[in-house]
């Protein structure tokens, strides 16, 4: 099974991917996570990408498609892939078809997380994660059950993404509207798109996604 989770920043792609990884032992392929790891590691890709990411703009198609290709090459054929934050442009959508074919895979579903754009800024600026295990939280919608302690690993260290500030979020929304949303009709024409209400609670969205994959 190969699926794309599509939606603007803050729609819940990362949260739902993490749930799918647990429930269906699929692999999450998040180009955002890969790029953040490259920035942290100071690799040539990271050095190129950092300023672009800080502005909320899109990194080049070539860089992200190469990351996806390399990650798919390292996976077992039978292991399902969740594309989270990729593809984000028409060129990336074409690259993905080519890369999937090269690895003997094809696209099963595109799940569009529909959201109320006005609510997204609040969603994004409130989110943080455990600095140790990466578990995702939100100040109001999904805080740890004991304040200041990670539910998953017990760590007391948390972090926020540098690009989760209001100004950058607005640029990321504009990028989504201008470059990513236009790739949906192509997938719709192939009959593989299902829209899920991304404003519903985390569990409810997960149930809706599971129903699509069943
Ligand atoms: P994300 O974690 O998916 O919100 O991505 C964070 C940032 O990484 C984005 O704002 C872009 O700068 C960059 N990025 C992630 N995925 C892509 C992609 N598929 N194409 C271009 N840039 C990307």
Automatic annotation (TrEMBL):
Keyword Cell membrane: no
UniProt-annotated binding residues for AMP: 31, 36, 57-59, 85-88, 92, 161, 172
UniProt-listed Enzyme Commission number(s): 2.7.4.3
Residues reported in the UniProt entry to bind ATP: 10-15, 127, 200
Keywords: ATP-binding, Cytoplasm, Kinase, Metal-binding, Nucleotide biosynthesis, Nucleotide-binding, Transferase, Zinc
Subcellular location field: Cytoplasm
Pfam family for this entry, one: ADK
Molecular function in Gene Ontology: AMP kinase activity
Region (NMP): 30-59
InterPro entries referenced in this protein's UniProt entry, alphabetically: Adenyl_kin_sub, Adenylat/UMP-CMP_kin, Adenylat_kinase_CS, Adenylate_kinase_lid-dom, P-loop_NTPase
Principal place of residence: cytoplasm
EC class (word): transferase
Stretches assigned to the Adenylate kinase active site lid domain: 127-163
Residue numbers binding Zn(2+): 130, 133, 150, 153
Pathway: Purine metabolism; AMP biosynthesis via salvage pathway; AMP from ADP: step 1/1
Domain notes per entry: Consists of three domains, a large central CORE domain and two small peripheral domains, NMPbind and LID, which undergo movements during catalysis. The LID domain closes over the site of phosphoryl transfer upon ATP binding. Assembling and dissambling the active center during each catalytic cycle provides an effective means to prevent ATP hydrolysis. Some bacteria have evolved a zinc-coordinating structure that stabilizes the LID domain.
Similarity remark: Belongs to the adenylate kinase family.
Function: Catalyzes the reversible transfer of the terminal phosphate group between ATP and AMP. Plays an important role in cellular energy homeostasis and in adenine nucleotide metabolism.
Protein name: Adenylate kinase
Species this protein is from: Erythrobacter rubeus
């Amino acid at each position: 099974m190969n699926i794309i989770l599509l939606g603007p920043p803050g729609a819940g792609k990362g949260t739902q991917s993490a749930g799918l990884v647990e429930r269906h032992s699929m692999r999450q392929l998040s180009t955002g996570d890969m790029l953040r790891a490259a920035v942290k590691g100071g690799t040539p890709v990271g050095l190129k990408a950092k300023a672009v990411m800080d502005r909320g703009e899109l990194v080049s198609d070539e860089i992200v498609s190469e990351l996806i290709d390399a990650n798919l090459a390292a996976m077992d054929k039978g292991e399902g892939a969740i594309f989270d934050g990729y593809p984000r442009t028409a060129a990336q959508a074409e690259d993905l078809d080519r890369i999937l074919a090269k690895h003997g895979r094809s696209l099963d579903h595109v799940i569009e997380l529909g959201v109320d754009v006005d609510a997204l800024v609040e969603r994004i600026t409130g989110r943080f994660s455990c600095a140790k295990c990466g578990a995702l939280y939100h100040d109001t919608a999904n805080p740890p059950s004991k304040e200041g302690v990670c539910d998953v690993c017990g760590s007391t260290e948390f972090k926020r993404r540098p690009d989760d500030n209001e100004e950058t979020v607005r640029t990321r929304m504009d990028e989504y509207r201008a470059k990513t949303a236009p790739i949906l009709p192509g997938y719709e024409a192939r009959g593989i798109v299902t829209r899920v209400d991304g404003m519903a609670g985390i569990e409810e969205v997960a149930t809706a996604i599971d129903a699509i994959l069943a």
